[in-house]
Amino acid sequence: MEKKNTWETYSHKQLKEVDAFAEEYRNFLDEGKTERECVDYIVNTVEKKGYRELQQVIRNEEKLTKGDKVYAVWMNKSVVMFRIGKKPMTEGMNILGAHIDSPRLDVKQNPLYEEGGFAYLDTHYYGGVKKYQWVTLPLALHGVIVKKDGTTVELNIGENEDDPVFFISDLLIHLSQEQLEKKASKVIEGEALDLIIGNKPIVLGKEKDDKETAGREETKAKEAVKQGILDILKKTYDVEEEDFLSAELEIVPAGRAREAGLDRSMILAYGQDDRVCAFSSLMAMLEVEDTERTACCLLVDKEEIGSVGATGMQSKFFENMVAEVMNLTGEYSELNVRRCLSSSCMLSSDVSSAFDPAFAASFDKKNVAYLGGGMVFNKFTGSRGKSGSNDANAEYIAHIRNIFEKEKINFQTAELGKVDLGGGGTIAYILALYGMNVIDSGVAVLNMHAPWEATSKADVYETKRGYEAFLKGASL
């Protein structure tokens, strides 16, 4: 089946809208390089659009009716939005669900050490990464340090032009004969992904009897570079080494999202899996007007490590918030919550692998997504024999096709590589446990899970259009 390139379907007006939307999207990527930063951006955005915090509505003992808009945040890492529709919630919702975590390096709890004249932060990689891709890049440090008294210190170092950046070293080519004989998975070991954060020994510049330095000269002499880093942390952020125990620090590529290609048709940035679907879902949610069914946008954490934990999709956060909303609409009962969830329709908004001509043998060309091909549907994900996948039924796919044809949404279907080469997972199978209709859909990504990923501006814009059409029209 032949499909048009999405760029060819746009009017001059739409081409301008594509560029404007891409600029907004790049700003979101720059502002939200961690889950916490994404949630801050989302909350600030939705509140400007009239969304109210669900817990505040509960405290005020208010009721929710048609057209009301509320949101809820869980542990500063997951967020859900509801726009109440005309029909009772027991008849189901239309749900967009994406994740806002991305592969990265996490700082360990006891991370700071000195070796060979360098101060390092010890790390543990998060999610599926090719470890060799993370060396010799300029890296930034984002996150929070929470002190014992509950004070939260936010860190964002490496993004501004006058900020220092950090890096992980690699062996010079002249000495790498043995290294290059290793398998790619072993060229850089996980324990070798330690971040270099300093090289200058602390200089006291004071008399030995100075109260601030008395009794510490021996320690400083042994680990003077580490002590220099601790001195900077204390003076700049008022944190001690022990405070790393209650810190969540993430190491991500430094630098802003950029337009790519002489034609500026693509976006090159960190974290597009899956913030590209999170942003397009958010914007669709904000643009949709009154709907027949309640519209919902769910953006969660921890997908890259199995959707686990209190902020992952396997937690009860979403179900609990649905119950709270139904209580405020006067519909709550345990049975009604079950009816609502089982009658809902969902797009599990996650990325798909884009065809890469340089590695064509890894793809089935008839069943792969192409950059510029429009929004992508994956009937199933999983691996090999569809293991671990949600396999959407034919009736639901036909329903989506009908909606998209009416709204003239350009879309394509895909699988994640050849049958026996691998696969991937999303949050779709978890929501499907409620019995609702779910299918994976989103944007094709080149270089997926690499420090810098590429998408097509047209695909990002078209996916937002598709999500909006779904929120307005799904009713199966």
Provide an overview of this structure.
The protein has helices at about 10-30, 35-50, 55-60, 185, 215-220, 225-235, 270-285, 315-330, 335-340, 395-405, 430, 455-475; strands at about 50-55, 70-75, 80-85, 95-100, 105-115, 120-125, 140-145, 150-155, 195-200, 245-255, 260, 265-270, 295-300, 345-350, 350-355, 375-380, 380-385, 410-415, 425, 435-440, 445, 455. The protein has about 475 residues and is α/β, with parallel strands linked by helices. The protein has two domains: about 5-100 and about 270-475, Zn peptidases (Aminopeptidase, 3-Layer(aba) Sandwich); about 105-255, Aminopeptidase i, Domain 2, CATH 2.30.250. Strand 7 (about 140-145) and strand 8 (about 150-155) form a beta hairpin. Helix 7 (about 270-285) crosses helix 12, helix 8 (about 315-330) packs across helix 9 and helix 10 packs across helix 12 (about 455-475). The radius of gyration is 24 Å and the shape is globular. The model has no long low-confidence stretch (mean pLDDT about 95).
Descriptive tags:
22 strands; six-stranded antiparallel beta sheet; Aminopeptidase; 476 residues; Aminopeptidase i, Domain 2; alpha/beta
Topology:
Blueprint: H1 12-31, H2 35-48, E1 52-53, H3 54-59, E2 69-74, E3 78-83, E4 93-99, E5 104-115, E6 118-126, E7 139-146, E8 152-157, H4 184-187, E9 195-198, H5 217-222, H6 224-237, E10 247-253, E11 258-260, E12 266-269, H7 272-287, E13 294-300, H8 317-328, H9 334-342, E14 345-349, E15 352-353, E16 375-378, E17 382-383, H10 394-407, E18 411-413, E19 423-424, H11 428-432, E20 437-442, E21 444-445, E22 453-456, H12 457-473
Parallel strand pairs: 1-2, 4-13, 4-14, 14-20, 15-21, 16-18
Antiparallel strand pairs: 2-3, 3-13, 5-6, 5-10, 6-9, 7-8, 7-10, 11-12, 12-22, 16-20, 17-19
Helix pairs in contact: 1-12, 7-12, 8-9, 10-12
